[in-house]
Design goal:
This protein has one domain. By secondary structure, the protein is mostly helical. The longest helix is centred in the N-terminal third of the chain and has 14 residues. The radius of gyration is 11 Å and the shape is globular.
Length: about 50
């Protein structure tokens, strides 16, 4: 069975997670990555 890659949304979440772990602000990261600020907050909570 062929393995599917990550969805575009999942790729953005992963891309947002790295700077958040490093301590960057959610609004700044959301703007840079192209996701909603709320998504960024959710990713930050999951990364704890």
């Amino acid at each position: 069975m062929a393995r599917k890659g990550l969805s575009e949304a999942t790729k953005k979440r992963v891309k947002a997670g790295r700077p958040l772990i490093a301590g960057k602000d959610c609004a700044e990261v959301a703007l840079a990555v192209g996701v909603a600020r709320q998504t960024c907050v959710h990713v930050k909570e999951l990364a704890r």
